[in-house]
Amino acid sequence: MYFRHLEGGIPFRIGFPRGVAIKSDGLRVSVRSWIVSARISCRFGAEMSIAHRVFTGFCLAMLFSTLSLAQVPFNDTDVTRLNVNESMNGWKPVCVLPSCNPGGNGIPTSTSHTIGHAHPSKDGHAMEVSITGPEYSNALWTYVAGADDDATSLSTSLWVYLTDKASVAGSFEFDQFNFSKSTGIEFMWGSQCNQVTHLWQVFDQLHGHWMNTAVKCALKLNQWHHLRWDVHRVSGDTDRCSGKPCMYYDTLTVDGVVHPVNAVYPAGSLPHGWSSSVGFQVQIDIGTTGQPVTVDEYIDLADFWAL
Fold this sequence. Notes:
The protein is mostly beta strands. It contains one helix and 21 strands. Strands 6, 7, 8, 10, 16, 17, 18 and 21 form an eight-stranded antiparallel β-sheet that branches.
């Protein structure tokens, strides 16, 4: 903010940096440009007319109104997390049978979750997740970005690299979630690349079923693929899908190609004792192998938004 005197008047300029967000009583004002400016030019003089006096008062009112707005505290709960693969912060311990149930019926003999891999990587800091075990063993890795019961739109963008061991995996899963304690609802937008059907599937949370989409899944091994999921819910919806809020699967982007999914399925009830949180998950499911195997996956440039 600065004040500068110019000949013939006194202009005032008030500036705010890019990205300032002000939220008060449910009304949010977001600034998406370099500055929001209020420029006031008021001419003073010994022979100021009544019109000038009125205009001067109006200018000053605008100035103080803008200054007042700048002082309003904000509580912007939107969640943005970038490059979350570069740190273990926010990542929960792996979920595997028998202590935690990610599905399947096999019990892994070992899992791994490490960071800082230079090869393969997109930026020199890839994360690797790995599972070793008999057929039908699953392992789930969950990233908790924060909590925002009011969030209605979620997006996850990441790069994945499947090694040559991935051919024995039954599916590779990528989920987003919003656990809302205030409403008692579990929004779990589950998705997976099913390597048996070669289709992307999405999850019906209420009924616990995987549902086919029309999007083909053919992630080639030993190369990077960029995945992005965009999903949403409708604020105020409590029962539009089988008595539960609806989960909308909007688009899946694979290597720059946007696939409209436009699927809608019901959310579920939040299990007792769970707290509010938003985030995403990755999971590896070992398929039909007949013997123990190891499947690993690299993740890089992983970003998450809850808005």
